[in-house]
């Protein structure tokens, strides 16, 4: 049985903001199914009582003194933007017109 | 002056220090070499001739001194360089000029090292062959029809083709070590947190580790010493002194490993390395025993789950990290004709800007993190990560380092693994456990199989990077270095 369906891949692509084509969906569904069946092997390990490791450095919070330090200028921060307007990032409309 | 490109970084540094060669001459020789061979190798995505020569001139004017002052370097294109294009080999960042330098780039500049340019890689460092670069693959100098490894294939190929004496790589699952192995060069992944991630375009933040690449163990250690050390701008940076890797490498090169215990992981034995890889590895082990090392078999029962755990953890983190490429702050924006909403533009931008492997991993990671699957996939993978760490800790109570082949196969022909992504993932079978644990590991060339280089991997405990350099130096003293056929 497939671990993941074409419909699920389409749903995940929408969640990931990827406007995938029909052809990509066909290809990815098969490939992701193979990958998922392989990685599902992690489930074989009995690990109920094992604490998870998020990363290897045993740190919790790292603070610095609350002192202003130099950072990018507004111009530098906007320098790579596809569209900027009056010192801000310009984006396409966020709400539909009827909203 | 073309023979300058054949010298080690250590030798070039001596020539520059004694004024037998100027930094400009050394840099020019490498830029000329790039001009003459890179059309065939395609190690570089961008060459910064003027920037490199400016830096060299400052060294020649006596403004900067230091162990590697004037020795040029190539930097993987996933590391930001102020004002110099940085794309992570992705169309989504085509033409982007970062407004800041990565910490490791600041350190290279402070050390007086001219940056020759930015090297090719798999897009966003996801891959083992550079075939996923949006700008075309890099060709292995040993055989131009074969892959140079990945993701850092450009950095490794630049070294093997004598286009640069040193290079920067990044290693998330083997992206420094596997390219080193298949190009006959040296590549080290430092302890996670030992080198700063600030300015490294994030793929999997709990695993990404920048590190040094070179043609000799001593050169690798010299570069390691320049880039390593605490950085307050990286919250997972370790606040401890960097082990003296240069002294350790030099000690190893004297060829004495008396009393050093090398651990052979029992579970790696049946894992289908090519016979030629196994043979070269075994011969190298025998060479190390002759230098006084002792071989001890150890069991790491959870290593067999490292690859599956990695391919849940890394895609999960990447699906989150790559959310920043939304067509708003930098890079590509597609489909913004005034009729479409932000969400539509974002989706079209990401579909056009990302290549297939990046999309696969984003979708896989989104799946592994979704409610209902989280515990079974991402949560379970993190528990397996704990067990793999415990395997390492138990092994290092018995031995000083663990050793294995770096990768199961030599450089493969282009196209032979792209249709089945999981076949590509197997390239990282031996390198991934270390990334999950966080310790350092190095790949050193150890022999040839059918005329192609084989890598020997040495893994050490966290913050014991010096230990692996000692064994690496000893191995190089026994087997020598390997030179590809003339291009």
Explain the overall architecture.
The complex is a heterodimer of chains A (99) and B (487). With 99 residues, chain A is mainly α. Chain A has a domain at 6-43. Helix content of chain A is 33%, strand content 4%. Chain A has helices at 6-15, 22-39, 74-78; strands at residues 84-85, 88-89. Chain A has a two-stranded antiparallel ribbon with strand order 1-2. Chain A starts with 5 loop residues before the first helix and ends in a 10-residue tail after the last strand. Chain B is an alpha/beta fold. Chain B has a domain at 2-249: Alpha-Beta Complex (Amidase signature (AS) enzymes). Chain B has 16 helices and eleven strands. Chain B has helices at residues 9-17, 23-41, 49-60, 103-110, 153-160, 177-183, 217-227, 245-253, 275-290, 306-321, 342-353, 356-368, 375-398, 421-425, 432-437, 465-479, and strands at 44-47, 73-76, 115-119, 166-171, 186-189, 209-214, 261-265, 294-298, 401-405, 441-449, 452-459. In chain B, helix 4 links the parallel strand 2 and strand 3. The model of chain B has no long low-confidence stretch (mean pLDDT 96). Chains A and B meet through helix 1 and helix 2 of A and helix 10, helix 11, helix 12, helix 13 and helix 14 of B.
Could you provide a short overview of the structure?
The complex is a heterodimer of chains A (99) and B (487). With 99 residues, chain A is mainly α.
What's the overall average pLDDT of chain A, rounded? 90
CATH homologous superfamily designation of the domain at 2-249 in chain B:
Amidase signature (AS) domain
Give the beta-strand count of chain B.
Answer: 11
Helical fraction of chain A equals 25-40%
Q: List the uncertain runs of chain A.
A: none
Cα Rg of chain A: 23 Å
Distance between the termini of chain B: 18 Å
Structural class of chain B: alpha/beta
**Net shape of chain A:** flat
